[in-house]
Amino acid sequence: MKNKHTLVILAAGMGSRYGGLKQLDTMSDEGDTIIDFSLYDAIEAGFKKVVFIVRKSFLDEFKSIYDTKLKGKIEVAYVCQELDKIPAGYEVSTERVKPWGTGHATLMVKGEVEGNFIVINGDDFYSKGAFKTIIKELDSLDQNSNDMCMVGYNLKNTISENGFVSRGECFVNDQQELTHIIERTHIERIDGRIQRKNDAGEFVEMSEDAKVSMNFWGFTPKYLDALEEDFKAFLKERSTELKSEFFIPTVVNNLLAAKKGVVKVLTSDAKWMGVTYAEDRPTVVEAIAKLKSDNIYPRNLWA
Fold first, then answer.
1. Is a pLDDT exceeding 90 seen at residue 15?
2. Per-residue pLDDT tens for 153-203?
3. Within 10 Å of residue 264's Cβ, how many Cβ atoms?
4. Which helix (H) or strand (E) holds 189?
């Protein structure tokens, strides 16, 4: 199977904390979204196809924007994540309104990826170097294995100054391989220190240099098989819950625990740019303007 270097973008979120579709909000005078920079960097690094994971309610809007921008530059496909896109036979509460999280979203690309692929968030800026680094590692992954890779970031570089964020805390051995990852759903800077809420709702300090996942993963097609199997097990136990989510790292942890694969942890010292909150936007707009004025990116990305 030839590796087509596929980029998968998680863009189905409704932006409840942001107050709108942050993945389509423009961050420059030229009308660039954060996704535009990931696409530009991925194409420059050598990716040949992008699959957008979106919702039906804004599919046409995505197509109207990106079909035009990307024509002739990269192959484009779209899949939709919806609450009812699950295997048959599972009971779901009629009161549930949101789909099932990043693991469920990624499962939507089954049949659209050929060979190894990466998964990223649609509202995070990752940096040029991260794409160049991960595509090299992606080429080394045996497509018939469950081996994986990811780009890890220093926690201090991924914090919003405007509220809490969710990050996957990564634990790494001396071979720079992931041993396990724990989802931390509430991390914020309080009184100058980075702290997270534990299960009891108490704040616990974290190291500023802790490695965290920003959902920048490299997978083989076999990951999707494991994802599907674990999602069915998840639904069997939790399908009637109103807010339960099925995360990408859940399956990664399961594969590691079963010793069915390894995850090479690549690192980036880049500072995160993202828009968890509307108040984050001015900082991102200013940073993007500087990247352009410093000629890191052209004034018009798609000219």
1. no
2. 999 999 988 899 999 999 999 999 999 999 998 999 999 999 999 999 999
3. 18
4. strand 178-190
pLDDT in tens, 103-127: 999 999 999 998 999 999 998 999 9
129: Cα within 13 Å, side-chain hemisphere: 9
In whole numbers, what is the pLDDT of the chain averaged over residues? 92
Judge if pTM exceeds 0.85.
yes
Closest by CA to 188, choosing from 255, 277, 249, is 277
Q: Give domain limits for the chain.
A: 6-143+213-259+270-293
Cα–Cα distance measured from residue 254 to residue 228, given in angstroms and rounded to the nearest whole number:
13
Q: How far apart are CA 296 and CA 260, in angstroms?
A: 40
CATH for 6-143+213-259+270-293 is 3.90.550.10
- Give dist(CA 292, CA 294) in Å, integer: 5
For 224-254, b/e burial (b = at least 16 CB within 10 A) is bebbeebbeebbeeebeeeeebbbbbbbbbe
| Token pair recorded at residue 43 | 């194409």
Unique residue bearing structure tokens 């993202």: 274
Token pair of 56, please?
């039906």
* Residue 298, pLDDT above cutoff 60: yes
Q: How far is 233 from 90, CA to CA, in rounded Å?
A: 10
Task: Provide the greatest CA pair distance for the chain.
Answer: 55
Q: Provide the residue type at 184 as one letter.
A: R
Rg of the chain, C-alpha, whole Å = 19
